[in-house]
């Protein structure tokens, strides 16, 4: 394509004055060629394009499937050209100045299906060390059964203490069946523990003080941290350790998707919301300050929404015909 003189002058300017790399100069050229094509389609000279034309070009690119990031890069090239043209007195203003690319949709974290989540929670590895099995099973139950963040999980202590409270650590109250955690912004919340989580935690506490490998190892019991979840040497588990153990456990359970802690939290929210439809309750359990965060975080399929509507809305059900 033959570019108009002003476009060629601009490309020469950025090549010489800004010393752009050859690849970048090629991209600038392609962006200007696209702009010239759009201008020709609108029967407008390049330097007579207005803000409305640019917005129309953006809409066309978006409608054709170009990503928001790709459009933003093109707009950046156009904006640079018209800024230069304005400095040269070729245009009265920059028609691209306040035009922004469409926002890319924020992807939601993936959730496990109910069957896969239960399969992971109930997985038992034959021949595995009972100490690790008990600990990892309790980790899965608290992440999926209570919707904890990984930071909240590893911050749990065995019992409540004034030191734990002062340092922003949580604890479990097995008598009340509650997990007390400190979330974002040092906000404390209480989350109910289900029967499966309670049993898993009790099983873990029975072996927690034993040396890793069981009594047969003959080694001295390591000094235990106050943490609920500890590693082989008795120190508090790190979030990275939980990530690695979950990934390995999900593979051993035969899941096709490697599982990470936030996926279990999202699964907790999604499955609970699908069953109850109570968005406000899910917000409280997740510890979200704003319900809009919960609306983005959780996911309902259309079929479930339709079922809720048909069952609950007074205008949804049709009167039976006589």
From TrEMBL:
One of its GO terms (molecular function) is tyrosine-based site-specific recombinase activity. It comes from the Bacteria. Pfam families: Phage_int_SAM_1, Phage_integrase. Residues 107-310 form the Tyr recombinase domain. Gene3D superfamilies: 1.10.150.130, Intergrase catalytic core (1.10.443.10). Coiled coil: none annotated. Its main location: cytoplasm. The active site is at residues 149, 184, 262, 265, 288, 297. Keywords: Cell cycle, Cell division, Chromosome partition, Cytoplasm, DNA integration, DNA recombination, DNA-binding. One of its GO terms (biological process) is chromosome segregation. One of its GO terms (cellular component) is cytoplasm. It is found in: Cytoplasm. Residues 1-86 form the Core-binding (CB) domain. Forms a cyclic heterotetrameric complex composed of two molecules of XerC and two molecules of XerD. Site-specific tyrosine recombinase, which acts by catalyzing the cutting and rejoining of the recombining DNA molecules. The XerC-XerD complex is essential to convert dimers of the bacterial chromosome into monomers to permit their segregation at cell division. It also contributes to the segregational stability of plasmids. Belongs to the 'phage' integrase family. XerC subfamily. This is Tyrosine recombinase XerC. It comes from Diaphorobacter ruginosibacter. The gene is xerC.
């Amino acid at each position: 394509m033959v570019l108009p003189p002003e476009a060629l002058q601009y490309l020469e300017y950025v090549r010489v004055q800004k010393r752009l790399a050859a690849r970048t100069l090629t991209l600038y050229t392609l962006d200007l060629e696209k702009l010239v094509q759009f201008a020709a389609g609108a029967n407008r000279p390049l330097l007579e394009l207005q803000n409305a034309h640019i917005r129309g070009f953006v809409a066309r690119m978006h409608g054709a499937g170009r990503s928001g990031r790709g459009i933003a890069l093109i707009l950046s090239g156009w904006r640079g050209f018209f800024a230069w043209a304005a400095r040269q007195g070729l245009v009265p203003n920059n028609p691209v100045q306040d035009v922004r690319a469409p926002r890319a949709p924020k992807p939601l974290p993936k959730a496990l299906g109910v069957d896969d989540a239960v399969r992971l929670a109930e997985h038992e590895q034959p021949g595995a060390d009972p100490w690790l099995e008990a600990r990892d099973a309790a980790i899965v139950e608290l992440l999926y059964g209570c919707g904890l963040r990984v930071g909240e999980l590893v911050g749990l202590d065995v019992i409540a203490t004034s030191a734990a409270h002062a340092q922003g650590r949580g604890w479990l109250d097995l008598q009340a069946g509650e997990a007390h955690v400190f979330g974002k912004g040092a906000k404390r919340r209480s989350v109910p523990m289900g029967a499966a989580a309670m049993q898993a935690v009790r099983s873990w506490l029975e072996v927690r003080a034993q040396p890793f490998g069981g009594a047969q190892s003959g080694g001295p019991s390591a000094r235990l941290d106050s943490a609920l979840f500890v590693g082989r040497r008795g120190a508090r588990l790190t979030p990275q350790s939980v990530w690695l153990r979950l990934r390995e456990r999900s593979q051993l359970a035969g899941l096709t998707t490697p599982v990470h802690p936030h996926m279990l939290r999202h699964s907790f929210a999604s499955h609970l919301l699908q069953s109850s439809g109570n968005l406000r309750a899910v917000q409280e359990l997740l510890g979200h300050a704003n319900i809009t965060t919960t609306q983005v975080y959780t996911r309902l399929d259309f079929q479930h929404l339709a079922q809720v509507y048909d069952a609950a809305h007074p205008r949804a059900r049709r009167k039976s015909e006589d």
